[in-house]
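Human: Cast an eye over this sequence-structure pair and say how the chain folds.
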Amino acid sequence: MAAGRELAGKVALVTGAARNIGRAIALALAEAGATVAVNARAARADAEAVAQEIRAAGGKADVFMADIADPAAVNAMTADIIKRHGKIDILILNASIRKETAFIDMTFEEWRSLLSITLDGSFHCVKACLPSMIKAGGGSIVTLGGMTALSGAKKRVHGSVGKHGLWGMTRALAKEFGEYKINVNCVAPGQMDTARAADRSERAPVSNVPMGRRSDPEEVAGIVRYLCTPGAKMISGQLIYVDGGQQQF
């Protein structure tokens, strides 16, 4: 792995780590020396590819398939991680569903399917990981938010509500668990240069970004990595945008 082993000896769980931002975060944490638990719900082949990429670079990674909306699956996953690696120091809540539906056409089932990942899944993961972090004497939690959490967006009511709730959860957890040396922050990507970028280009053109381009997943991952390092322990309860200056609030 490259120089800079500031997370050596740490164990990190990254949800939704098979592709895009989650993949980049898993690679960045591994580069910093962390052992990475690569979580995915269904994309096993992609998750295995991420873990193999980490191992090929000299890092440590395992794949843990689990639907984070299922508390039993989350508890089993975290128990397995702790059994294999002894603890969980870092939790990255990246898993989400990104779908656009006009509110008038949105069913309650679709509403719940998104919130079950963004909010319920985050609840299950934090609950499962906190005891290990407290026992270890500290830890880091990073949630992945979004610009529409505060601005709102057409056809994204469920997404906006979920990310807004996740931001509120971030702030509350930071206050409640700071005494245990656990810092909790939210990183909000803007328009991303990922496989999903084409789906959003019509709604949010690159011309709206002052920097003139979409962000790379690696740029988001770099901020997440920093927030998990010892040098960032006094950064907690913060919302950090990686959007090229696009936010308008």
